[in-house]
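Record filed here:
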Amino acid sequence: MRQILIDDLSREEWAVVDNFLKRNARPGPIDGMYWLPLPAELLSATQQEHGDCAPFCCGIELGEAAVAFELLVRSQAKLHCDCIAYATPEQRAFLLAFVDRLVAEERITA
């Protein structure tokens, strides 16, 4: 899996990251899992054609001392479809900007 990883989080940083994700992402089906929805204007042509597969999100997993941001754009409606693909350059830039905002706003030093 291709991902952006921030590891070696202290307990305090972990709590701050968890609060940030609760405010800025959607909760997933299990504890520590979050979804970052992609704006419609960033969807690939295939994703735009697959309205029944929307919404499209990147997964975020908050582990014991790390947070991983998946570069796979997933459908929230289907597990297997041609519209599920690794992020385009524009989608990666959106995800990286989200990570940068988290690090800057919450003063993460890990």
